[in-house]
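thread: overnight batch results

M.L. [08:02]
morning all. the overnight job finished for the chain we discussed friday. pasting input first so we're all looking at the same thing
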Amino acid sequence: MFLLAQNQTLSNSLRELEADGLITRHDDHQVPPSVTYHLTSLGKDLAMTMNQLFDWGQELYSKKEKMVEH
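M.L. [08:03]
and the structure it wrote out:
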């Protein structure tokens, strides 16, 4: 039951990402069925922005830690 809910959540998330233009879905036309997803240009831009935000957060955290140490 739990695995079914996880699969449905993943499927819903992938559909939303595709609808938002962040990923594309490719049916590999294989047996058993195989589907792959790829980032679009917009998805790659978002990933880069998120990485920059993460780096900024790490830098800010490090600065705050140094301030507390002194």
